[in-house]
Design goal:
Number of helices: 1
Helix content: 10-25%
Largest sheet: 5 strands, antiparallel
Radius of gyration: 33 Å
Order of helices and strands: HEEEEEEEEEEE
Number of strands: 11
Oligomer: single chain
Strand content: over 45%
Shape: elongated
């Protein structure tokens, strides 16, 4: 009788150990889902970098860097056509931009602005092209006694060339995921 009770206790311990192991595995699987969410992201701003500062987005737990954004150029006063150039470093596959909010500063207050026509572009490469250089060459021609000057004959002559590097841009759609890299 005692052996039967010991076998049942052994089976109960095995069932308890199996249940604990299953719960432990579920917690590990759920932790991966929680780590993949964005509710715990932390944004920091360093105003000492560049002309406009730099934003760094990290996982709240400090385990991973997600993205770094630095505004490089900006049309500070905007009329008809405005532009800004931002360097974004993505550390994992994700959307560069998934939501846009424009704000304006007027009368010492910030307020949301509705800009209807805007586009985003990402740099996808560079191309080098040959550019011809020209020099204006003038020679004195016929004398004009009326105003005591010489009529000049001018023309532009090729004086050399140089290589110019142009960026190649591709239109970016909001929410479009990109591979890790610098954009």
């Amino acid at each position: 009788m005692e052996k039967i009770i010991q076998k049942q206790r052994g089976k109960n311990h095995l069932k308890l150990l199996s249940a604990i192991l299953i719960v432990f595995l579920i917690i590990i699987i759920m932790a991966n889902v929680v780590f993949a969410t964005t509710f715990d992201n932390v944004k920091s701003f360093d105003e000492k970098i560049g002309d406009y500062g730099k934003i760094t987005i990290k996982n709240w737990f400090g385990l991973t860097d997600l993205a770094e954004l630095e505004l490089k150029t900006n049309t500070d006063v905007c009329g008809i056509s405005c532009s800004a150039e931002t360097e974004i470093i993505m550390h994992k596959r994700e959307a560069l931009i998934d939501k846009v909010r424009f704000i304006e500063y007027s009368n010492e207050h910030w307020f949301e602005s509705s800009i209807k026509d805007y586009k985003f572009y990402i740099k996808v490469g560079e191309e080098e092209i040959d550019i011809d250089d020209y020099e204006k060459i003038c020679v004195e021609g016929e004398y004009i006694p009326k105003n005591e000057t010489y009529k000049q004959s001018c023309q532009y002559l090729k004086s050399g060339s140089h290589i110019q590097t142009n960026n190649i841009w591709k239109e970016y759609n909001l929410g479009e995921e990109v591979e890790p890299g610098t954009y």
